[in-house]
Amino acid sequence: MATRVQFYHNAEHPLALACEFAARAVAGGRKIALRVADEPMARELDRMLWNFDPLEFVPHVMADSPLAAETPVVIGRADAQQPWPETDMLLNLADDIPEGFERFRMLVEIVGQSETQKQPARMRWKHYKQQDLRLQAFDAVRREAL
Q1: Mean pLDDT throughout 94-108?
Q2: Cα–Cα distance, 58 to 24 (Å, whole number)
């Protein structure tokens, strides 16, 4: 089965939206890989997940952790090559096309509001379209399909 690709455009706070996706995935019994650009972004996302909801814990680790295969939310970096322990859902917050995204059932691209985030997202959309993947676009602020 081909990977389903969803783009969430116009996100005011992409990392906050990633936290929301992660919390929903865990609540639904799913596993999710969160792919960020670099170490500072990974640390920020880790911090945000710890503080996301005071009444709910979102279990998460970095991709290089020995516990990655057992943890529902795994944070990985685009600037580091590490294997993903699961292939259910990949959430991409980096500007490039994730290597091996085809192994995932679903790929979610979160795109911020700045032009520097929109331009690489347009290139990713074009790439996925050329691969004949099923694409869906949503407005992240209004939470509706485009």
Answers
A1: 95
A2: 9
